[in-house]
Each structure stands twice: as structure tokens, then as C-alpha cells.
Amino acid sequence: MRIVIAEDDSLLREGLALLLRAEALDVVATAGNPGDFLAAVDAHRPEVAIVDVRMPPTHTDEGIVAAVEARRRHPGLAVLVLSAYVERAFATELLAQGGARLGYLLKERVGRVEEFLDALHRVADGGTAVDPEVVAQLLVRGRSDTRLDRLSPRERDVLALMAEGLGNAAIAERLVVTQGAVHKHIRSIFAKLDLTPTDRTDRRVAAVLHYLEEAQGRG
């Protein structure tokens, strides 16, 4: 797996590179600003880009803008966005473009190496990885919507894990239920939210996140 890292904090940037190289992953370039990041993506054509949300010069949304531009230039690029704290608008802006090969994690998740690597591989393999705290805050913000109120507590648990990017088997393992039970919950969730279910994880997650984005806008 060829990886480019864009992070303006030099200690975190080099720490990430060391961590990934220790896992036998190929970090082909690192960058401390959006311009160098885009140049590295163009030059090395990585499979995955790890990008900080806030980068120079204004430390607002430069990372998100660069990630969007990198995917425009290289549509197959997987992007894992890192943020110091939950930024709902940036998360939904990026993920609303389509769930496939996209992730949004809090930086504190990097310290949980197994979880971080699992998210990285999931995104590289074409899936989605969304930090549980991001999902929780989106769900809480959208609770005023009557369609979310239709969900049972267990269906809300399943929806949160779906939004994180987990497949049926992983959800069943996390909740200690059968895959058949998970499938029934998912069918019920889509019916209650007026969404058409699909067997492709990336599409169903994109649909759920799109719904949550609308709920956030009305909240």
C-alpha cells in the first residue's frame, strides 16, 4: 500500500510515517502543507492519502479542500482525514461526496494503533471508516427528526455501527448477535428512514450519512 501523509505537525507527521513503515506499509512521501501534498500525490500516485483537516496557511479547511482536489485529480485515491476534534460540517462535506474509500478519524484514534490500522485498511479496500465519536454527535444532532425517533434502541446501535463503516459480520460480532439478526435490523432501519437498502456497504453508509447530514441541517 503506497501512502502519502499531509500533516503540518512535524512530530505527528513523522510519527505516523514511522508507525506505518513499521507495519511494512510504503509511505512514499510526507508533506506539511496542501501544495506539497498535491504535488506528492501527482508525483507518486499513492493508493491512500492521510490528510489533516486544518493546514497552513489559515488552519481552517485547507486539508479538506486539498483532499477533495486530490480525489478530483485521482478518482481512485482513498482518503483518510484526521482531525483534532469533531468538525461536523467538514465530516459531512467530505463524506457526502460518496462513501467509498473515505474515512474521518479523530487524531486521538491514532494512538489506538489496532483501530487506526483497521480503519486505514478498510478505506484502502474501498470501504468507509468514520470515528465513533463523529457518528455519535451526528446522531445526537439529528434526534429531533421524527424518522430517527422511529428507530428502536438496538436499531440505533446498528445504524451507528453502519455509519462507522462496519459490515454485517463486524456488527454482529460487536453486538454479540447473529448476522441474520443484523440483516433484519438493517432492513427495518432502511424502511423506517425511507431509504432503499443495498448489499454494498459503501452505498448504504453513504445513504445513512446523507440522511444524517439532512437531519443535521434541520436540527
Automatic annotation (TrEMBL):
Signal sequence region: none
InterPro entries: CheY-like_superfamily (IPR011006), NreC/VraR/RcsB-like_REC (IPR058245), Sig_transdc_resp-reg_C-effctor (IPR016032), Sig_transdc_resp-reg_receiver (IPR001789), Tscrpt_reg_LuxR_C (IPR000792), WalR-like (IPR039420), WH-like_DNA-bd_sf (IPR036388)
MF annotations from Gene Ontology: DNA binding
Residue ranges of every copy of the HTH luxR-type domain listed in the record: 144-215
Span of domain Response regulatory: 2-122
Transmembrane portions of the chain: none
Lyase found in the keyword field: no
Residue numbers of 4-aspartylphosphate PTMs: 52
Cross-referenced SMART domains: HTH_LUXR, REC
SUPFAM superfamilies: C-terminal effector domain of the bipartite response regulators, CheY-like
UniProt keyword terms in alphabetical order: DNA-binding, Phosphoprotein, Transcription, Transcription regulation
PROSITE patterns in the record: HTH_LUXR_2, RESPONSE_REGULATORY
Pfam family, one: GerE
Protein name in UniProt: DNA-binding response regulator
Upper classification of the organism: Bacteria, Bacillati, Actinomycetota, Actinomycetes, Kitasatosporales
